[in-house]
Backbone:
């Protein structure tokens, strides 16, 4: 079993899908960690006034927490 501590991982800042602000994000797991259509699991901090823009994920799966 693969375990990662998102609190100690490197954090990136990015504008997501033309949303408002710059989200703080950790890519906890990526496609290479799975044998399914799950593309990624991200730990995301969305501060007041920030947003994740609208998007359609397509045939892949992803999870934000």
Residues:
């Amino acid at each position: 079993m693969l375990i990662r501590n998102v609190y100690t991982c490197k954090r990136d800042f990015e504008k997501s899908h033309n949303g408002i602000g710059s989200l703080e994000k950790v890519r906890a797991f990526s496609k290479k960690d799975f044998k399914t259509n799950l593309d990624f699991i991200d730990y995301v901090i969305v501060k007041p006034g920030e947003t994740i823009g609208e998007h359609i994920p397509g045939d892949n799966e992803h999870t934000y927490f």
